[in-house]
Structures are given as structure tokens and as C-alpha cells.
Amino acid sequence: MESIPANALVNPLDQQTLDDFSAYFQHERWTRQQLEDYQAGALRACREYAYAHSPFYQHFHRGLMDRPLQELPVLTKAMMMEHFDDLVTDRVVRLHDVQQYLDRADATKPYLGRYRVMATSGSSGRPGFFLTDRTELANYTNSGTRFLLWGGVTPESRVAVVASAAPAHMSSQFPIVINGKRVIPLQLSSMERLETLVQRLNEYQPDTLLPYPAIASTLAEEQRQGRLHIAPRSIFCAGEMIPGDMRRRIEEAWQTKLFQTYAATECGGIAAECEVHQGLHLFEDFTIVEVVDEDNRPVPAGMQGARVLITVLYRRAQPLIRYEISDLVRTSTIERCPCGRPFALLESIEGRTGEMLYLPSPSGREEGITPLQFETVFDMLPISGWQVIQEHDGLHILLTGASQELRDEQVLDKLRQVLTRRGVLVPALKIRRVAELTRNASGKIPMLIPRVPRRAS
User: Fold this and answer.
1) CA–CA distance, 138 with 185 (Å, rounded to integer)
2) CA separation for the pair 88, 90 (Å, rounded)
3) Of 232, 249, 265, which residue constitutes the final position of a domain?
4) What is the reported pTM?
5) In whole angstroms, what separates CA 313 from the centre of its chain?
6) Which of 55, 72, 170, 300 is the right S-S partner for 86, CB 3.0 to 4.6 Å?
């Protein structure tokens, strides 16, 4: 069985990270001007430290050190990994040593006695490695504390996490701290057999769930079928898209509202829904988030960006200034949430640039198809899950929990209509009814899997 031991995260760093969240709680009562003043000071300190201690930033921002953030160049993951040794501010840290440390996969011993090391899955290319020292881990932890408190989690909550079990993944490294008290969750691998997940959850009886959305949807179906018997009061989902039909199924199964959260290995919590559920509040006292177009220009509210640029205000060991994340998000047109918090809102998270399929149009161009365009077809179908895999012979449509009354041709007709309206040449479409959907290296279930290289424009 591939679950994480309850004590896997206990290491010397944790004694320094049970910080009181009260200071950050006060930020939620600030005016917008107070928040912007704080952000400006934190950004100035972040840049000054990077310029004083990182040879990479001394060169990368040469001649631009006094310029506004929006005029600085964009840092990609490939660039960060290529210049890793010069980008980090601790001169004894070396990428080769970090890789060797991760190969040993011993999460109980900090790297060099002072750093946690987390890694991205590499699902969109080369994996990224990220160092976090004691002070940074406290901020990382507090970014997660915020959305947990919004969802009603207490130190006495029984929390179950169903995510990646990889030792370097953020779900394995992320401590849960509420009011200064460490909460030890039941941690289960998203790659575990469904029967085992159901058994463990039935035994544990969690009141708080932190699963990937697709896992939550599958568990919701188990609850409806009478095999799973739990009653979570709070459900937090991140790591994948949450189509509207999936969200409804999850909420109906347990008669509770789902809290969508937005997080990244690079910085921890980025945004989350509050109790109003009218969008995701950006955690602007932790990270500056820029939603930009293909030319890295800010997009107006209500428009989907081509990517996200993050500047993590508290990072010192490995500064990330205008770091590119290939997420497709849409800023909200709501200027102020009824909850009164000063943080700006995201309207939706629509996946990653890598979670798009490109199909040819009659003009010869390639048009990007997002998961939401497929959702318009699958939204009301009697199914529990779906996935589209692009192969050389066409699109393979995987359906789970499909009703026997649902006819394949009925689904294919609707798909052809949507793709035709999108202005693309409709490829061959094949439906497969499966027990489980395809997972990536982190155990997530992407909605779209392109296995055909994109043509040069």
C-alpha cells in the first residue's frame, strides 16, 4: 500500500514552523491601500536581497534594478534550472547535490541541515527543484493555513489528504498548522487502488478532505453507490481543473460546499475561495500574481490570460521574480468580495497551457481547444468522469461511470458540433468506456492529454 507514514514529515525544520497565523489574519482586515503599501515594501526587500546575494539576478536584471516589476524579464523554469547554482543565494548549494539528495528520497533529513527540497512533477517538461528554509517554510505553511481556516478547519479536525505520495511533492512536504498546532493528517496516495482508498477513509472517518478534484469526484460516486460512508464538512480541491458538473457531483454527494484552492510548489497557496464562493482570493501578501497575455502584458478583468507570472515575496534562498507558470486563469470583474477582504479575485482556473489540444482549422492554422470547451458536452451527461487523449489517429474519449442508456453516437454528435463551431477540422472520434482514467506522474488526472506534437505555426 502506497500511503505516507504519519511521521514522515517530522524533521528539525518543523520545530521552527508552528508559527502563529494571527499576523496574517490581520492582513485580511486591511484596506486595499494598506495591502498595496505592504506589498511594495515586501517586493523591495525581496529584490534587494536577490541583487545582493544571487549572481544570476545581478546579471539578469542588470540595468533594470530600479525599474518597476512589470518591466523586468520573465523567468522560465528551464532558465531557472539551467542557472540553478547561480540563482540560489546560498553559495554552497549545487544542483548536482540537490539531485543526489532527492534520489535518496529521505524527507526526514533536511538538505544541508536547513532546507526542504520540493520538486514539480515535470508533467509540462523538465522537473523543477525548489529550496525552502525555516523562515520560508513558515510562510509556505501560513499560505495553506489561510484557506483551511476559511473552510472551518480546527486543530481537532480529522484531515485526509489524497494526493501524490512522492517524497519531494508539496503534498508530502506541506505541514498543516492551525492556531499554532500541528495537525497530522491521514495521507493517502492518489495512485492507490480505489478499494483501498475507500477502506482507509471508512476506517478513519475524516471531517476534512483534501483530494485532487478527479479523486474527489470518484470518491463522491463511491459515496452515492453506498460503498464509501464518510461525512466531510469541508472539502478543498486543487491541482486540477474543476468542471462545473464535477463540482456539482462532489457537493451533492456530501451536501457541503467545495472550496477551490490554487497552489503551486513554487510558493504554496496562491488563491482560494472564501465562504462566499464568488471567486478565488489572491494571497497578495505572500505572492504577487500577474495574469498576462502571450506578450507578457496584463490582461483586463474578465479575460483569460495566456500564463501567470508570480513573484514570491518571502523567498530568499531561491528568489522567484516574475517566474512563469503556464496556467490559464481569468481575473474577476468583481472589485470587492462581499466578505470584505482586500484581496483581488480570480474568476476561474481553466487548466494549464499544456492542458490544451491543438487542432487544424480549414485555413491551415492550429486552434487551441481547452477543457472547458469539452465540458459543454460532458456537463449534463450521466457519467462520473471524462478524459480526451489526442493520438495520431484522432481523439480518444474516455468515459467512466457512463449510464448504459447513454449512446456513443449521441455524445459524438455533440462533440462534432462543438468542434465545428470552434472552427477546427473535426478529427476521428472514438469513445472508450473505462473503469479508471489515465494519471500522470503525480497521480493527477488531466482532462486533456496531447500525444501528438504541435505543428510549427
Assistant:
1) 18
2) 6
3) 265
4) 0.78
5) 19
6) 55
